[in-house]
Amino acid sequence: MPGRHSLFWKLAALLIGFCLLMIWLSWSWGRYMEARTAFLSPQARASLSDYARAAERALDAQGPAGLDNVLRSIAAQEGVFVTAIGPDFAPLGQSALSVAQRQRLTSLRGIDWPVSRRSTTAPWLRVPFPQHAEGGMLVIELPQRFMPGRYGLFWHLLTNGVVPALFTLLLCVGLYRMLVAPLEQLRRQAQQWRADRLDTRLDPGALSRKDELGELARAFDDMGERLHRTVTMQQRLLHDLSHELRTPLSRLRVACEAEPDNDRLRERLAREVDNMQRLVEDALQLAWLDAERSQPKVQPIQITALWDVLAEDAAFETGWLPQRLHCAIPETCWVRGHLNSLAQAVENVLRNAIRHSPPGARVSFSAEREGDHWRLSLQDHGGGVPEADLSRMFDPFTRLDGARPGDGGFGLGLSIARHAIERQGGTLVARNAQGGLRVELRLPASEPAATSAHTAATY
């Protein structure tokens, strides 16, 4: 069943309203115009009443002879049969009536009655004398110039042709505004994209609609925004990657030209090749994370078990003592996420903290429950980051001017970590706290799994 805001109901209401309007037009207005054209006009009734008044005055003043003169004058003027009769249908003048004329007197019509236009002969009308006490009346065959419906064809065309056409035009305008106009906006948007103008967006009116076209417009606009973000990110990533690769290539060129010791040259070559390989792999992974739209398969993960594996690897690779990697997370801290992606994100954040920590410093990992989520905090003591650069540090190859140890750059690790966390329904932010940088991961909480050994073993 279509939803309450479905386009189906709008179209149904529009078409039902149009049909009801056309029915009303043909029944009500049509009947009204039919009645208006079936009656004598006020001017015709006034003229016929004047004829009856003139005949009455002639009868009262000159008798039957004067009445006959007036009747002959009216007949000559209008070219129709005219007579005057009393209550008993006897002629008031001197002229006698034929048998056929007497028979017609039985079907006289009043001047306020409708006149049928389908009759082959003009009707005979009775017009009472205004002041004749005995009930005298003028009988006249309706003159052709008084015949109603002279503009019947015009009104027929107007009622059954022009007005329905106008309402149909209004229906087409309504359908156009409801259906075609939003599709036309989508077509113009697609043309803007084809012209490489990916930053253009749809009109807010199209996005605010609650029907299927509104959903299509929002999906279309979201697709454009994501496409623009992806293209921009890839262009920037390609630019930054080419810039970052110039440095090891330059060092390789200098080493090849100036290093006399082959062993040291091979060591330098291996180190620089490893750096370039890591840059390329991280760039490809970041591009894949941004292009991948399917949601990863999630599972319950115990953070303490995951941290033990990551801390052990980090201590082995960097030479840090395990005591410098402090974990204050309870064993009841379970989150719902994708194990490999979460492990990589935490590992990247941990390596970044170790890289920017001064000698002898310590990295702390803690957790706090917030409703249906766990907030994991990893803090170093590297001096922090300027507040204006806290969000920028997650951009690829960001380099900051500050007092933090290290080379001032964040590479691609934090960008990959943020993308991985966001794809699992979490958030990743950075804050300054207690003389260092605190990176907070917020992830959905989960019920404990059967064992925690499986979590560490899988990774």
Walk me through the structure.
The protein is an alpha+beta fold and 459 residues long. It folds into 3 domains: 40-147, Beta-Lactamase (2-Layer Sandwich), CATH 3.30.450; 216-291; 299-458, Heat Shock Protein 90. 54% of the residues lie in helices and 13% in strands. The chain is built from 11 helices and 11 strands. The protein has helices at residues 7-38, 42-78, 99-104, 152-194, 204-207, 212-258, 262-291, 303-318, 339-355, 413-423, 453-458; strands at residues 82-85, 109-110, 124-128, 137-141, 299-302, 325-328, 334-337, 363-370, 373-379, 427-433, 436-444. The chain has a 5-stranded mixed beta sheet with strand order 6-8-9-11-10. The protein has a 4-stranded mixed beta sheet with strand order 1-4-3-2, covered by helices on one side. It has a two-stranded antiparallel sheet with strand order 5-7. It is rod-shaped and about 150 Å long. The chain starts with 6 loop residues before the first helix and ends with a helix. 24% of the residues are buried.
The poorly predicted ranges are 452-458
CATH architecture of the largest domain: 2-Layer Sandwich
Query: Order of SSEs, N→C?
Result: HHEHEEEHHHHEHEEHEEHEEH
> Order of strands across the biggest sheet?
6-8-9-11-10
- CATH class designation of the largest domain: Alpha Beta
The CATH topology of the largest domain: Heat Shock Protein 90
Rg, rounded, reads 49 Å
Total strand count, please?
11
Question: So, the CATH homologous superfamily of the largest domain?
Answer: Histidine kinase-like ATPase, C-terminal domain
